[in-house]
Amino acid sequence: MHPTLIEFSERVGVHSYGLLILTALLFAFMVSSRRARLVGIDPDDLPLMYMLVAMCGILGARLFYFLFSDTANFFANPFIFFDGNEGGLVFYGGAIGGTVSGVIYCYLRKIPVWKMADIGAPAIMLGLSIGRLGCFFAGCCHGAAVEMDGHTHDVLMSFKGGDVLWLDHAPYLALSFNPGVGVGSIFNTPTYPTQLWEFTGAMCLFGALSFMWYRLRRFDGQILATMMVLYAGLRSSIENFRGDSIRGEDIMSGLSTSQSISVFSLVVAVLIAVIQFRKGVTSEEPFVGDLDDELDEYDDL
Prior knowledge:
This protein has helices spanning 16-38, 47-68, 71-76, 91-109, 113-138, 194-215, 222-239, 257-277, 289-300; strands at 4-7, 13-15, 153-159, 162-167, 173-177.
């Protein structure tokens, strides 16, 4: 809808997508640090992990994009992986890359892995929600064409790259892209606002998982498993309305790449719940390292 905020040249500028991805990472890490302190994790141990998670997450997201959406071009010229003007990011690849690197870091630094995973699960949904706004402004991850059949629409909001439309029938809200915006967009045709759906759904999951983390935890790993189940359902449902031409190769018959990964995610979530349920929530106390340091300095005086 508005892919470039500031343009310095034809290929250089400040892009909405990149800016919102960075914002998503920043807010996710801020929330994680605040909650880590509440369960006894020193927030000062986390900045390096955040850098690793961000780096591996972006690498994983890029790798999944080229492996499942642009395979032929990638193997013909692997260096397009490093070209920011080529290709995009796949959420599941980023989530897997970031999670694996985070688990390894926690294991090496002796940070409770399952407690950090439960902290990270709502933060992932918060980051995804903000990131989908980047997709909205970039015109990617859009929906399929909405059947009009003589129905009418009004322009609700206009952007440089297209319009937000109000329809007189379901789904009521739709998007229309101008030429040059979007990936395989159906130009000047109302499409399902799948980016806004996922923004709303992920933000709701962030709120629900955060409430569960504060009030309803019964075992370590519960929040992560719950997130994996709920997001798999959300993503699989929205996938049915996606219409961008780069959808990924089917792994299972009749399922897109993301839907196939969602099935795998459900299986892993069940295994986590079965294994971790009997262990309950291990003891935890708020981290007060800064206060201890201040008291030690006072005693020295």
